[in-house]
Q: What sequence folds into this?
């Protein structure tokens, strides 16, 4: 079994940080379609893949997977949920599940 790092211990090492409870679902920032790229050379883009936007919550060894609308799809993505055995106590990952 992977040893989990105490986030409360780590938080005490950051000036001004205060331990808190794990938040619930966080509405994601979604991309906005534009007709043309911004002027100048300081802009960022990404390739559009079709898939499912998900949010993975790790909380003391428990994994929950939410859709972008906050629906719990842990059972539908059970293989993905099982792959999140990583050495952290609490974390939230936001991303897209795609088949390339």
A:
């Amino acid at each position: 079994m992977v040893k989990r790092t105490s986030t409360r211990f780590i938080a005490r090492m950051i000036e001004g940080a205060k331990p808190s409870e794990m938040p619930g679902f966080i509405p994601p920032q979604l991309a906005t379609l534009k007709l043309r790229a911004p002027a100048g050379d300081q802009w960022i883009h990404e390739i559009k893949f079709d898939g499912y936007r998900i949010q993975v919550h790790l909380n003391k060894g428990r994994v929950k997977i939410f859709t972008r609308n906050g629906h719990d799809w842990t059972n539908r993505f059970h293989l993905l949920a099982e792959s999140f055995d990583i050495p952290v106590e609490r974390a939230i990952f936001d991303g897209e599940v795609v088949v390339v």
Notes: The first helix runs from residue 7 to 12. Residues 12 and 66 are 29 Å apart (CA to CA).
